[in-house]
Amino acid sequence: MNLREPQQAKRAVTVDGIVKESRPVGGVSASWLACYPTFQDALQGGETKFRALPHCAKLSVLERITTGTNSPTVTADILDEVRVAYVELCTTLVAQVIEGYLSAGTTREKLQDISSTVLKVRAAQFPPICVPLVARQPCLLSPGNAIFLIGWARFFAYCSRNDKTIPLLAVDWPVLYERLTA
């Protein structure tokens, strides 16, 4: 009798079109992703290390941690092993989540009084910005129940020009800041 252990299906994790690793489908997500409840399921498929990010995604994180004159000197070696999850999700999916977030606490009657969607009303409050068509910087996700840490203007720019996907980046911020202070 030939007994074999059933092998679990694996999901390929790609970065810039290159398979970097494979993880079991339905496997337990890393605990750090638990602080990103809104997009946690999608982020599991994009989990990687900072060193594997494309340059445009790295820039978003570096801009966030090096603002001001007393910014720490950051080298790639410090951040290489920090866990991140970089994904591009369908614009309509992200827009639905954002619209739900923006309309939280608004009564149904008030929502009906608004002639256009909450998303369009909020988008009008942001000045138009020019974002590249290629190598788009991601919207940095905020840990907890908020949506974006940085990237509202980018999100609205991507939506207004009808991009098919929105790039999102989650970072293991506690580990990143711990490495910066060490």
Question: What can you tell me about this protein's structure?
Answer:
The protein has 182 residues and is α+β, with helices and mostly antiparallel strands. It has one domain (30-181). It is 34% helix and 20% strand. It is built from 8 helices and 7 strands. It has helices at residues 40-44, 55-65, 76-79, 91-102, 108-113, 118-123, 152-160, 173-181; strands spanning 10-15, 18-24, 47-49, 83-90, 139-141, 148-150, 165-171. The strands form 2 sheets. Strands 3-4-7-5-6 form a 5-stranded mixed β-sheet, sandwiched between helices. A two-stranded antiparallel ribbon has the order 1-2. It is globular and about 50 Å long. The termini are far apart.
Strand elements, count: 7
- Poorly predicted runs: 1-20, 24-28
CA-based gyration radius: 19 Å
What oligomeric state is this? single chain
Our estimate of the beta-strand percent is: 15-25%
Strand line-up in the sheet with most strands: 3-4-7-5-6
Tally the structural domains.
Answer: 1
What is the makeup of the main sheet? 5 strands, mixed
Query: What is the overall number of helices?
Result: 8
Percent of residues in helices: 25-40%
On the 0 to 100 scale, the average pLDDT is 77
Overall shape: globular
- Tell me the series of helices and strands, N- to C-terminal: EEHEHHEHHHEEHEH
- What is the end-to-end distance? 56 Å
Structural class: alpha+beta
State the gist of this model.
This protein is of the alpha+beta class and 182 residues long. It has 8 helices and 7 strands; from the N terminus they run E-E-H-E-H-H-E-H-H-H-E-E-H-E-H. The chain has a 5-stranded mixed β-sheet, with helices on both faces. A two-stranded antiparallel ribbon has the order 1-2.
